[in-house]
Amino acid sequence: MSNVTLVVLCAGNSTRFGKSVKKQWLRVGSKPLWLAVSQKLSSYHKFEKVIIVGHSDEVGYMRNFSSDFVYVAGGDTRQDSMKNALGKVDTRYVMVTDVARSCVPEDVILDLIAHKNAGDCIVPVLDVSDTVVYDDVTIDRDKTKLIQTPQLSKTDILTKALNTKDVFTDDSSAIKALGGEVRYIYGSTKSKKITFGNDLSDIECLTKPDLVYLNGNGFDIHPFEENKKMFLGGVYIDCGYGFKAHSDGDVLIHSLIDALLGAAGAGDIGEFFPDKDMAYSGIDSKILLEKIVAFIGNVGFDIVNVDVTIVAQKPKISSYKDEIKKSLTKLLQIEQNFINIKATTAEKLGFIGRGEGVAVISNATLKYHDWTQQ
Which of 37, 121, 258, 295 satisfies CB 3.0 to 4.6 Å to 153 for a cystine? Predict the structure, then answer.
C-alpha cells in the first residue's frame, strides 16, 4: 500500500460559476461530477482511503451515491474544509484535489505518488508561454509557474501548515509559508479547472447528461385546529380554522416537498426540517419549499412538472385552485402549465369525510440539468 489518502474537495458554493446547478453536481452521463471524478481518480491508484468533502447541506445526500468513500462536511472556506478532512486522515501522505479540476490524467497521479518522498509537498505545474505583466511591469515568464492540483503532502506538515489564521489558496502555499520543502513536477494541459460556466466547453473529458426523467410522490395529512389560519400551496383559505402542525401546516406544500425529494432520492421533509427543531415552529411553509427548490437546483435537477390531488370534505377548494397554481408557479420557478391541481372529496368516508382534516397526494418529475444547452 502507498500510505496515501485521497481528499476530493466538493464543498464550494460555485458563486463564480453562474449556473443554476453547482459545478460539483453537473451530471456526467447519470453521475454527478464529484462521483465521476472520485471514481476515476480511485481507479488510477489504490488509495488507502478516499475522503469526499461536501457542503454541509449536501453531504448526507452524497452518501446515497456510494459507500466506497468517507464523507466529511466542509467548512466556510477551502482551508476549513481541509482541516475537517485532515481529521479523518491517518496515513503519512495525503493527496488533495479540487473536483473542479475534473480531467486530471492518470500519469499525473502516478507521478505525484512516485515523487512522494522528494519533498514536503509535491505540486504539478505548467510553464508560462505568454508574456506576463504584474502590477504594470513585465516580469520574467521563465520564473513563473501555473500551479495545479492534485497536490501530495506529508500529512503532519500540511496539518501544521493549515493551523493558522492566514488564508492560503492551495496546500503548497501553506507549506511554503511554514518553511517546508515544495517540489514541482510537470502537470498537464488536460487538467483544466472549471471556474466559470463558459469553462465547460474547454473540458474535454465531460460527457453530456443522460436524458432521464425521475418521478417521486408525496403524501401528507393534517387534522384541523380551530382559531388558526389555513394555508394551502401558500394561499390563505378563508374558512375560520387551520391545520394542527409544527409549522403553519400547509399540507399541500409538505406533500409537494416529499414528492420533489422522492424524485431526487433525497429522503423526506423530516430529514431536512425535523419537527423537534424549534427553528421551524410555526414557520411559513413557503420558506421550506423555497429551500428545497434551491437544493434540487443545486444538486443538478430541473423540475419538469408537478401534479397535486387535494382530498378534502371541507373547506371547498375549487375557487382557490387558480390562485394555488399561481403561487406554486412562483415557488417552483416553472411555467403554470406544468402545474396541475386537482381537488376531490372523501365521499363523507373516514377521517377526511367527517370533516376532521385534509390530505394531499403529490407527484413530481425531475430531469438532469442539461448544462450543454447554456
Answer: 121
Q: Which three cell numbers stand for residue 54?
A: 461536501
Mean pLDDT of the chain: 94
Alpha-carbon distance 281 to 284, whole Å?
9
Cα atoms found within 13 Å of the Cα of residue 343, Cβ hemisphere only: 17
N- to C-terminal Cα separation, the chain: 44
C-alpha radius of gyration, the chain, whole number: 26
What does 5-63 look like in DSSP terms, one character per residue?
Answer: EEEEEE----TTT-SSS-GGG-EEBTEEHHHHHHHHHHHHS--SEEEEEE-TTTHHHHT
Query: Quick one: how far is CA 63 from the chain centroid?
Result: 12
Instruction: Set out the domains of the chain in order of their start, with CATH numbers.
Output: 4-202 (3.90.550.10), 213-373 (3.30.1330.50)
- Would you say 204 and 184 are in contact if contact means Cβ atoms under 8 Å apart? no
Span 163-193, pLDDT tens digits: 999 999 999 999 999 999 999 999 999 999 9
Look up residue 135 and give its DSSP letter: T
Question: Which residues are paired to 138 by β-bridges?
Answer: 133
When pLDDT is averaged across residues 65-83 and rounded to a whole number, the result is: 95
Q: Write out the H or E segment, with its range, that includes residue 304.
A: strand 301-311
CA 237 – CA 90 distance, rounded (Å): 58
C-alpha pair distances (Å), 293 with each of 106, 256, 267, 333? 37, 11, 14, 8
**pLDDT of 224-237, one tens digit each?**
989 899 999 999 99
Rounded CA-CA distance 191/207 in Å is 16
252-263 confidence digits (pLDDT tens)? 999 999 999 999
Confidence check: pLDDT of 85 > 90: yes
Q: Which residue has the cell 375549487?
A: 318
Grid cell of 63 as nine digits: 452518501
The whole-number average pLDDT for the span 104-123 is 96
State pTM to two decimals.
0.91
Strand partners, 50: 6
